[in-house]
Amino acid sequence: MRLIFFPFERVVEINSFILEREPGMKGAVDIGKLQGALGRIDNAIAY
Questions:
Q1: pTM check: above 0.70
Q2: What DSSP string describes 1-47?
Q3: Computed from CA positions of residues 14, 17, 19, 22, in that sequence, does the dihedral angle turn out positive or negative?
Q4: Of 10, 11, 25, 47, which sits 20 to 30 A from 4 (CA to CA)?
Q5: Rounded Cα distance, 16 and 42, in Å
Q6: Tens digits of per-residue pLDDT, 1-47?
């Protein structure tokens, strides 16, 4: 299995792209929470 890692900026960009084209919840991005969530994933993969 090959893992793909995205920096948080790319995740925000993908999310914005999707929300521009699809219905869904709109709102501001909480960068701190996003970085924390992505960090937990990286940590789980590492250990």
A1: no
A2: -------HHHHHHHHHHHHHHS--------HHHHHHHHHHHHHHHH-
A3: negative
A4: 25
A5: 22
A6: 787 888 889 999 998 898 889 887 777 888 999 899 989 988 888 88
Contact in structure between 8 and 33 (CB atoms under 8 Å)? no
Phi-psi label, residue 22: left if phi above 0, alpha if psi -120 to 50, beta otherwise: beta
Distance separating the N- and C-terminal Cα atoms of the chain:
16
CA dihedral over 34, 37, 12, 21, signed as positive or negative? negative
Q: Rounded distance, CA 47 to CA 9, Å?
A: 24
If you search the block for the tokens 């925000």, which residue do you land on?
Answer: 12
